[in-house]
TrEMBL record:
Residues 33-54 are annotated as: Disordered. The lineage of its organism: Bacteria, Pseudomonadati, Pseudomonadota, Gammaproteobacteria, Alteromonadales. It comes from Shewanella litoralis. Residues 38-50 have a biased composition (Polar residues). This is Formate dehydrogenase accessory protein FdhX. InterPro entries: Formate_DH_TAT-contain, TAT_signal. NCBIfam families: formate_TAT (TIGR02811).
Length: 65
């Protein structure tokens, strides 16, 4: 009975080591990705993204009623 109790302690230790090493690997891989901070763009919008379509014109027309 005493031997079985010592096996449980060893199993728990091995599980903890496996989980700890897996967590360490994930942390070391994801840390550089989390550390990269993008700065907001200082460029002014060029206006190429805005297109006045039919549904936009209808919306503007509904505002003036």
């Amino acid at each position: 009975m005493k031997k079985q109790a010592s096996d449980m302690g060893r199993r728990q230790m091995l599980k903890a080591l496996a989980l700890g090493s897996a967590a360490g690997a994930v942390a070391s891989i994801s840390a550089p990705a989390l550390a990269q901070v993008t700065k907001p763009s200082t460029q002014e919008p060029t206006g190429n993204n805005y297109r006045e379509t039919e549904h936009i014109r209808n919306y503007y027309a509904s505002l003036s009623k």
